[in-house]
Amino acid sequence: MAIGEVFAVFLEDDPLTTALPLPVLSSDRLAAVRAGSTYYVSALAFNEVAASCTYVVAASGGSTAATEALGAIQLEPAAAIATYTVTMPPNALNNQTFGVSTTQDITALTASPAAGQTVLGGAVGVLPADGGVAWRYRASNTTWYRVN
Fold first, then answer.
1. Which residue has the higher pLDDT, 148 or 87?
2. DSSP H helical ranges for 11-126
3. Are 113 and 100 in contact (CB under 8 A)?
């Protein structure tokens, strides 16, 4: 990458797969780190990552592994459940947020890291009906930090 250039990314299946050089002084770009390289992603592309959500009909004792670039999981159990585990998205972007919400009470929700990651505040415990919890990812130390 030449000095004075950054990469803007167009969202396809992966927001960091296609890039063009653009001027450095662009206030509408967010830094995203993937596999040791820094990319400057348009706010639109980053927001589409953050806005992506998967809906899951959860059952007690079940689990869901988030896919890469997923922003949230909405759990929709038929009734209150005792336990559920969510695995964080792999290859997360720097400052990516990820949230879990539920329509019914979950007595013991656990957030597990994807390979090579750490989750702080992963033992959520009780997540009440219509409640949610979120984390923010820091790429430099591959750690998810609970933000609420």
1. 87
2. 43-51
3. no
